Amino acid sequence: MERQSNREGIKGMLNPTRYGIERVAYWLQRLTGLGLLFYFIGHVIETSAIVNGKAAWDNMLELTQTTEGHIILILVIGMSAYHTANGIRVMLGHGGIGVGKPGTPDYPYKAASLNYKQRASIWISIALAIIAMLYGAGVLFGD
Amino acid sequence: MAAISPKMTEEVSQTAVPTPKSITLMISKFNPNHESSHKFVEFKVPVQKWTTVLDAILYVKQHLDTSIAVRYSCRQASCGSCGMKINGKPSLACYTKISELNSDIVTVEPMSNFPIIRDLVVDFTSLFSSHKKLKPYIIREDSEIASDAKEFLQTPKDVEEYLQFSYCIKCGLCNSACPTMATDSSFLGPQALTQAYRYVADNRDKGKKERLKMVDESHGIWRCHFAGSCSKVCPKGVDPAMGIQLLRGYLLGFRK
Amino acid sequence: MIKMRESVIMKIHYGTALGAVALVAIHILFRMTQNFTVSLQYENVIANYHLLPYSLMLEVVLILLSIHGFNGLRVILLELKQGIGYEKIVNWGCISAMTALVAYGSRTILMAGMGIS
């Protein structure tokens, strides 16, 4: 008999809670990835104004060099920093680096792959994103 | 005849028995044959310091509602039968004490990402079929059964390479916690992928190439993103996330 | 068309990521060679496009990021829903979007670099 799949669905995939910082890191990696993709598409389109001459370029700058535009850019800076740093952690993890070594499990059966190196790297990625955003805000709003 | 001292007959136990407190156990009830969605039914259950979630469910089944469907067997985290979501997190009911949940309301639901048979019982067909697909046995041409052959020797170091991954009790908690399993019905799942690594890491096995080819698919090992939730919930210390990344290391050329 | 192994696609995904990180860092540093607002003025931007190595670098960044970004989107979409028809649409849709973005961006780089406006 065909049974209902009972999958958590997108709500389960998007829920960053319940499973610790590593799940939050996964969720942030997806979110920042999508955010950066959409920004990239917008960036390619906005910069194409250069081929239409100085007036078109200045028009584009008037739209983007605003407070809202700067806030978006600051978010993009943060997203890039996080996605890059966490991406490097994930890439190394995918190669088996930093995930611990197999051994004999013993109570309380703590997973060796969810070690302090992974947690520290995630927090460092978040910290780098915050620092980058603060620096970006300084440059953009400091002018 | 020696006289029995009256004091001896009056002896009472000095051990203080703690007064049981009560918690509210909310059990998800759902019969897919008759209902369209699940509902939570509340039960007041007396618990002691040592009461497990399984004890509480069986109390309900014995005294309050005999129709609760629940799968269990060993009661000691060996068989993997009693996996369910306890307060939103996949756990073994026999291995989770009510006292460690730090809550007077305990919610139990069937594991996510498995079809529901009834109430807390889920269908393991897809887990078993993914597991079988990856050939969970030693692949080699010769065998230990030939009359003049010796058993295959392994040093303790050889055994340690795969030992923890052999501890898997197929409880399905990892598949329930996995964010990819939440949406991808074709994904092999952490359990099957880890068992693939268990055999690849076993130096008696000669099926590495075959297994690597099997996991190198669009819904295979590459849909794992190292969220680590599988390892977070594994009750036996198998650490599926480690197994999967180590397996992927072969495909990426980090390991030979 | 020959189907690429998923391991090859993912190696490309990782490679484009590392390449893009390095080159985007250079791209951003170019904006820091002057005051940020001044560096965005039309004349300064056009001057950047007229530098052949910089234009080539921009082209490479465009290709690397398009591949990495749309492959990431492809992975997310493939995990959300399965089925032969849907997967074909997602695969070809992402390849098309990737190609379109590279084409459009290349047009900008070419035209700006050649002084066509």
List the helices and strands and how they pair.
The complex is a heterotrimer of chains A (143), B (256) and C (117).
Chain A: H1 9-14, H2 21-47, H3 54-64, H4 67-94, H5 116-142
Chain B: H1 6-9, E1 21-29, E2 39-47, H2 53-63, E3 83-86, E4 89-92, E5 105-109, E6 116-118, E7 121-122, H3 125-133, H4 156-160, H5 173-177, H6 190-200, H7 208-215, H8 229-233, H9 240-252
Parallel strand pairs in B: 1-5
Antiparallel strand pairs in B: 1-2, 3-4, 3-5, 6-7
Helix pairs in contact in B: 3-6, 6-7, 6-9
Chain C: H1 6-31, H2 36-39, H3 42-50, H4 52-80, H5 84-113
Pick out its properties.
heterotrimer; A: 143 residues; mainly alpha; 5 helices; 69% helix; 0% strand; B: 256 residues; alpha+beta; five-stranded mixed β-sheet; two-stranded antiparallel ribbon; 28% helix; globular
Query: Helical amount among residues of chain B, as a percent range?
Result: 25-40%
Name the overall outline of chain C: elongated
Structural class of chain C: mainly alpha
* Element order of chain C: H for helix, E for strand: HHHHH
User: Main beta sheet of chain B, described?
Assistant: 5 strands, mixed
Q: How much helicity do the residues of chain C have?
A: over 70%
User: CA-to-CA gap between the ends of chain C?
Assistant: 38 Å
Unreliable stretches of chain B (pLDDT < 50, length at least 5) are none
Q: Note the total helix count of chain C.
A: 5
Walk across the major sheet of chain B and give the strand order: 2-1-5-3-4
Rg value of chain C: 17 Å
Count of helical stretches of chain B:
9
